[in-house]
Write a structure and sequence with these properties.
Number of helices: 15
Largest sheet: none
């Protein structure tokens, strides 16, 4: 949500509006594809099960690696967001300094059980709602540019540059990357027949919120908008400092609290891939294992060491690649396109042994946009 205004600055009004609506519709369609495959076979429960049914047992390792890359990218983004927000509030020290200091909190938190970490999810919801309110209030209350909806900044209807369009692909797509949990969600619903209605509303709300913040942020700051619009709120004079600082403090606390929650499944998958722990038979068994404290043993020592290494690696990558937009673009272009667009459509084609015109178009366009956006993300990084 924070990077949607930058995506509109890169894509312009016309292409940006087309892309965000198109991605919302296609992501909603592919979510239904996953759910229909899952519900048609009672033996399937997870995204990996769908991949195994469509592409064979060897696909499990590939899917696990994809999930690891996505979760690692999210963990790096959380570190960057926390440090950038804290630097905006207290600029005495650099963002990199705050990232390194953050290890003192992040390392102990990755050893907490899932049952405790799950409560921190509410902070993400609160910070999202607060940020929406603050952005709208700031834009409407400020009479003069920059940062005003009453005196909009200069904007463009056209694409700023073709390399930047690739970045916009990833920035727009990153917000729709929730398909990893779709199979378990569909299976666990009391009435699975209501899945299509539920997912329609979910993507309608998500697309509306992203478009609203993208439009408002682009109108307020134009092509000068930062990677994270939250940074502009604090450095632009004329806003309510109490409201803006409260919103930014939420963007400090929320990423710190959610880092361990994000890396829990990443660490669990890595422990299986490295042979430290046996593979879980189901998502429920995986959840139980993550929520249970691990007794002392040699394997527990190896698992703990691996968690510390993952945490340090997340901070190190955040220091090496400090551009928030590059990280978000990679998350959207590579991980989100692969897991949310290319994977579900390819699975449908493999299961049904046929390919319709719509699926062929989505698959081809998804591969082109994913490749274009990933290369652009690496170039900007």
């Amino acid at each position: 949500m924070l990077s949607e205004p930058l995506a509109f600055a890169y894509a312009g009004w016309i292409a940006g509006t087309i892309l965000i609506i198109l991605y919302g519709l296609i992501s909603c369609y592919t979510a239904k594809l996953l759910a229909h495959i899952i519900l048609a076979d009672p033996r399937l429960r997870s995204y990996a099960d769908v991949g195994r049914k469509a592409f064979g047992a060897r696909s499990t390792v590939v899917i696990s690696i994809m999930f690891c890359l996505e979760l690692f990218a999210v963990s790096v983004i959380l570190v960057t967001l926390y440090a950038d927000s804290l630097h905006a509030i207290i600029p005495k020290y650099s963002s990199d300094t705050y990232k390194i200091w953050g290890l003192l909190l992040l390392i102990p938190m990755v050893f907490l059980p899932l049952s405790l970490l799950s409560y921190t999810s509410i902070l993400g919801i609160i910070s999202t709602i607060m940020m929406i309110i603050v952005i709208l209030y700031d834009g409407l209350s400020k009479p003069d540019a920059p940062g005003s909806l009453r005196t909009p900044a200069e904007t463009s209807f056209t694409i700023s540059s073709w390399p930047n369009l690739g970045i916009a692909y990833g920035l727009f797509m990153a917000g729709f990357s929730g398909h990893a949990v779709i199979p378990s969600l569909a299976r666990d619903m009391i009435d699975p027949e209501e899945f299509d209605t539920m997912i329609n509303w979910a993507f309608l709300v998500a697309t509306t919120v992203y478009a609203l913040i993208g439009y408002v942020g682009y109108l307020m700051f134009g092509s000068n908008v930062s990677d994270e619009i939250s940074m502009d709120l604090l450095k632009t004079p004329g806003y309510n400092p109490v409201m803006n600082q409260a919103a930014l403090w939420m963007l400090v606390i929320s990423p710190l609290s959610k880092f361990a929650l994000t890396t829990q499944p990443l660490n669990a998958v890595l422990e299986v891939l490295f042979g430290i722990e046996p593979a879980a038979a189901s998502p429920e068994e995986m959840a139980l294992k993550m929520s249970t404290p691990v007794p002392w043993s040699y394997k527990a020592l190896l698992g703990g060491t691996q968690r510390v290494i993952v945490t340090i690696a997340s901070v190190a990558v955040s220091v090496a690649v400090p551009e928030f937009s590059a990280l978000m673009a990679f998350l959207g272009s590579f991980s989100a396109f692969m897991i949310c667009i290319i994977g579900p459509v390819a699975a449908k084609i493999a299961v049904e042994r046929k390919c319709g015109i719509l699926d062929a178009f989505i698959l081809g366009a998804g591969i082109v946009m994913a490749s274009w956006g990933t290369v652009a993300a690496f170039l900007i990084a």
